[in-house]
Amino acid sequence: MLGVLQGFTLILVIIGAGYATALFRVVEGEQRRVLNNVAFFVATPALLFTVLSGSDPGVILSPVILVTTAAAVLSAAAFVLASRLWFRRDLAGTALGATSAGYVNANNLGLPVAVYILGDAAYVAPLILVQLIFFAPTLLALLETTRIPEGSRPRGRGGAARGALLALGRAASNPIIIASVLGLIVALAGVPVPEIVAAPLGMLGDAAIPMVLLSFGISLRGQRALQPGTGRAAVFTASGIKVLLMPVIAWGLSHALGLGAHEVFVATTIAALPTAQNVYNYAATYRRAETPVRDTVFLTTFASLPVIAAVAWWLG
C-alpha cells in the first residue's frame, strides 16, 4: 500500500500547491484558465501522441481490459439513467457526469496501484489506450455539439444529420483527437518517431498532468466543495457509481466470464480507481458542468483509497 499512498500524496501535494498559488494571489480568478488551455491545446496532445505512438494497440484485447471497459460503459449508462430519473442535466452535464462515473485515473494513481498492488504496470497501460482512443474522443465530440451557436444549428428536414456532421467536423479539429489519431496511426504502422520530434513532445507531455492538477487546486480557493446549488445530487451519484458500483460490476463480469482469481482481483481494483483529472480539464476548457466535475474528482480521490484497500484485503 506504500506505493498507492505515494501516488495519492503526489496528487494531493500538487493540488495543494495550486491552492496555495491562489491563496497567495499568484494566480487569481479566471487566470487559472490559462493553465487549462495550455494543458488542453498543447501539453495533453503531446502527451497522448507520445503514449499512443509507443504503444501496442493489440493489448487492448486482453480479458481484464474488456471487463474494465464494459464496467466503465455500464457505469456511465447507470449515471445517464439516474440523471433522467432523479435530476435532469443538459447534454454537456450528462456527458461529463457519465464520464466522471467511468473514466478512471489510470495514469497518476493507476500506475502506482498496478506496480505495487497488482504487480505489473502492464495491467493499466491498455486501459489508458482504451480511454484515449474511445472514451475521450466520444466525450469531446459531444461537448463540441454544445459549442455550436443556437442560430447556426441546422433546422428542418435533415437538420439533425447536418448538425451531427458539423459537430463531428469541429471534433475532428480538436488537438487531443488529432494527436490521438496520429499516435495510433504511428503505432499501427510501426514507424519510429525521430528523437528530434520525440524529445520536445515528451517534455511538453510531462507538463500536462501537473498543469491540470495545479488548475484544479486553484479552482478550490474561495469555493468549498459540495456547496448547495452546485449539483450535489449529480456529484454523489457519479462518485457512488465510480468508487462503489463500478468495482462491483467489474467483479461480477469477471466471474461471469470465468476469469481466474488474480484477473478478478486486477479488474476489480482497476475499476475502483478514482475519476481522472482529465475529465475536469475537459469541463474547465469547455466551461460545462465545471463545479460538479471538480467535486466528483475531489470526492472520488479520497473515497477510492479505502475502497482499493478493502478490495486488496478481500481479493488480494
List the defining traits of the structure above.
single chain, 316 residues, mainly alpha, Na+/H+ antiporter like fold, 14 helices, 0% strand, globular, transmembrane
Summarize the structure in words.
With 316 residues, the protein is mostly helical. Helices cover 74% and strands 0% of the residues. Helix 1 (2-23) packs across helix 10 and helix 4 (91-102) crosses helix 11. It is a multi-pass membrane protein. Its main location: membrane. This is AEC family transporter.
Write a brief caption for the model.
With 316 residues, the chain is mostly helical. It has helices at 2-23, 33-53, 63-86, 91-102, 110-118, 125-145, 159-172, 175-189, 195-206, 208-220, 232-256, 261-271, 277-286, 290-315.
Cα-atom Rg, whole angstroms?
19 Å
Outline type: globular
CATH topology: Na+/H+ antiporter like fold
SS strand fraction: under 5%
Provide the structure class: mainly alpha
Question: CATH class, anyone?
Answer: Mainly Alpha
Largest sheet: number of strands, sense, barrel closure? none
Count of the separate structural domains: 1
Helical percent range?
over 70%
Structure annotation, total helices: 14
Order of helices and strands: HHHHHHHHHHHHHH
Please, what is the average pLDDT? Answer: 83
- Please give the alpha-carbon distance between the first and last residues: 12 Å
CATH architecture: Up-down Bundle
Secondary structure: number of strands: 0
Flag low-confidence runs. none
InterPro entries: Mem_transp_PIN-like
Membrane topology: Multi-pass membrane protein
Protein name: AEC family transporter
Subcellular location: Membrane
